[in-house]
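for the writeup, i need someone to sanity check this before i put it in the appendix. the sequnce is what the collaborator sent (i think, or maybe the updated version? ugh). structure was predicted straight from it, no edits. if anything looks off just tell me and ill rerun, i have time this weekend
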Amino acid sequence: QLRQHHIQEALEIFAGVIARREHVASLRDAAECMHRLGKNEEALRFLGRAKQQESENPYVLDLESRILEDLGQLEPAYQAALLAAARDPANAHMHNRLGVIRMKQGLPAKAIDHLLKAVELDQDLFSPANSLVSAYLDTGNVQAAESIFPQLTAKARTPSNSALLKHTEARIAFSKREFETSRDILKREISFDRNVIPNLGLLVRSELGLFDENARGFPTIARVALKSALEALGKIEEIDPTNEFIPVLRAQIEEHQAANPAEPTRKTPSGSALSSSVRTSSESGRPLPGLPKHIPPSLHPPPPTTPRSGKVPDSPQPSASDVPGATEVAP
């Protein structure tokens, strides 16, 4: 029943088994059901009972790590995953989870060894290879990220993998200051309603990169790029108005607006100053199911870089979630 996603029915079966006799496996499976039903505190209580019988069962610890990660308790999640990987060192998924948690903690350099181990253990898995590319980008090693990308392409076998692959391709182009390439990839993916929120976040920054390149020599093109960045931000606000990185993107746009004083500004309902010529349009897209719940990498604050003109605000560099999200949640 659990494998067929009949969660409530599976939980009733496991509860009946537990009522007769508590087994580590049945307690763990019941906790899995609770977790999928969103009852994480109850799931942790089941796992606590399982750990009383077998304190270092790797599958119990792995589930505990996933639940703690969902609750935002990243360091306890990391410690549980570390113990799980020690008990089952040949399990690529567990090493991948360690890398993903480190990425969520904003420690990409510490994620790399975990992700390399996961890739070494299972060459076919997409998730650790994609997270490894993201970690390399976040640490500024674009060359290493590019060298892995052809292998990553061969591992993308599902629609979700393909959507993440395109976002990663756009991130690589962005990191190489190929802003038009990045923009074109992102707009195409958004038009197909794929990975919409992370793609819009990176699109904002790609358009700002184009603004930087053209502000002095081609001001009309720069204004078009700035307008597109504003429209992309407006779509994020419509789809996910509580996204905590909206203010970061808005501040970046307003910084660039200060370098383009030709057009008057107005205030939006959310309080941001927008060009008077800009209107945002509605967006029906939603992120793909199973994509990261944490903040996608497109929406993280970047370090500055030097624009070609040398006179306008710096274009941002992408860094992770995630990160999405892009970092991704391990299976």
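Residues 219-239 form the longest helix (21 residues). The chain is about 60% helix and 0% strand.
thx in advance!!
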